[in-house]
Amino acid sequence: MSFQPPKGTDDIAPPQSEPWRRLLRDFDALASRYGYGLIITPVFESTDLFERGVGEDTEVVQKQMYTFTDRGGRSITLRPENTAGVMRAYLAGGGAGISKVAYSGPMFRYERPQAGRRRQFWQVGVEYLGTESPIADVETIVLARDFLGAAETPTELVLNSLGDGVCRPAYLSLLNRYLETKRGALCDDSLARLPSNPLRVLDCKVCAPLLVDAPLMADHLCAPCVQHYEAVKNALTGLGIDYRQDSRLVRGLDYYVRTAFEFVSTTLTTAQTALLGGGRYDGLAEVIGGKGAPGVGWAAGVDRILLASKMTAAPPLDAYVVVEAGRSPLDALRLAGRLRDAGLSADFEPEGRSVKSQFRSAERRGARSTVILSERGAQVRIDGDKADLAAEEVATWLSIRLQG
Ligand code: AMP
After folding, report:
1. Which of 86, 127, 101 minimizes the C-alpha distance to 36?
2. Residues 210-240 pLDDT 10s
3. Region 151-171: what's the mean pLDDT?
4. Mutate-to-test residue for ligand 1 from 58, 303, 305, 309, highest number of ligand atoms within 8 A of CB
5. What does the CA dihedral 324, 330, 331, 337 come to, rounded to 10 degrees?
6. Segments forming the whole domain that contains residue 348
7. Per-residue pLDDT tens digits for 242-289
């Protein structure tokens, strides 16, 4: 039997998991500070939620879903993204009022695996439901900026407006007429997308050189969409947040309206550089069968962010407890417990090995201090200094010393 994880999936284990832990903690703390409650929805949902909520014409639904029939004969799909699930949960709860929620968890897409593109990947994200205010769009963007800042990774914010049910249909007929004139030269993927999803054709890297003079949504927005877009841009400028407008940035489905954005890595050299993507989806609730409810949000891929991040591995241990003859690992557990209660990280060796081997472990763990327990009491060694203390004094002494 092979012990490798399935193709396109990863074991995230120490020490590589340490930046994960920090990033997930930072996300949690930030989301909470911004007033987003935690939401946990099922990892699998009824297949038709994604067929409707992600869109039957999308690559995700057509080619990438892990779908199976359960023992009760229901078609079930492992979630490829979480916005549809969160909206379903909001509607299940009555779908009224403003709700700000944050999530974190694995998503599943049958992709061709490569760096930053996995079959199981971890997304964190937020959804701001129940309001059309452009300030909600901006708040989610500010939170995204802060989150990526915590991840120590430089990015550029790319912004667009996709119009709405009023201005987009007219624009789409214009775009369709234009694309028909280019039909002979489009790549196979674009040809396949043309009938159902012409906006995605604009997004095609292969066809881009052919489409430089294509009509762009940004030039055909109706007055309320212009107003919304201007409000978002003015607020960003007022808050000192730089952005680049890209009229070719799309989400490609009818229920995505107005704001669309991405934070793109400026340092990653892999094919996948979009670290975080989001936008407004005021049509989604109706598409999945509910009463209308506006929403805006984003999702970011933790796997991909950490490829680009400068975050380092585990912070060193504050203290390693070494026991000399006459003291046991249980004594070390007790002392480590005191240190841990004082908010310090502490560890020890449980098998009663030699003192030399315990010191080696302390060094291997990069411990900032060593506490040696003997029959005489405790000696703390830190930065070349030694202090002889009673066991109950060690935690307070070390806390002050490590903070100083
Ligand atoms: P999406 O849900 O496609 O808008 O993607 C939002 C973010 O999730 C992207 O910017 C990536 O960071 C991440 N992401 C999407 N698909 C994958 C994948 N297959 N593997 C790793 N990260 C992904």
Report:
1. 101
2. 888 999 999 999 999 999 999 999 999 999 9
3. 94
4. 303
5. 130
6. 319-403
7. 999 998 898 756 688 999 999 999 998 877 899 999 999 999 999 999
Tell whether the model's pLDDT for residue 146 goes beyond 80: yes
- Closest residue by Cα to atom 4, ligand 1, is 277
Ligand 1 neighbourhood includes 128 CB (under 6 angstroms): no
> Which ligand 1 atom minimizes the distance to the CA of 251?
4
Query: In this predicted structure, which of 40-44, 188-192, 362-366, 398-402 has the lowest mean pLDDT?
Result: 188-192
Residue nearest to atom 3 of ligand 1 (CA): 277
Using the CB atoms, write b or e for 284-299: b if 16+ within 10 Å: bbebbeeeebbbbbbb
Rounded to whole angstroms, how far apart are CA atoms 107 and 217? 31
The residue whose CA is least distant from atom 14 of ligand 1 is: 301
- Same domain for 372 and 290, yes or no, is no
**Residue found by looking up tokens 């229901």 in the block:** 74
Q: For residue 223, give both structure tokens.
A: 């007055």
Residues 161 and 300 in one domain: yes
Q: Report the pLDDT value the prediction gives residue 253, as an integer from 0 to 100.
A: 67
Q: What is the pLDDT of residue 58?
A: 83
Task: Determine if ligand 1 sits within 6 Å of the CB of residue 116.
Answer: yes
Q: Do residues 38 and 91 share a domain?
A: yes
Reply yes or no on whether the pLDDT at 314 is more than 80. no
Domain count, the chain: 2
| Separation of CA 109 and ligand 1 centre (Å) | 9
Residue 276 CA: which ligand 1 atom is closest? 10
Tell me which residue of 368, 358, 360 sits closest to 328, measured CA to CA.
Answer: 358
Rounded to two decimals, the pTM is 0.92
- Cα-to-centroid distance, 119 and ligand 1 (Å): 10
Question: Could you tell me if residue 202 is inside a domain?
Answer: no
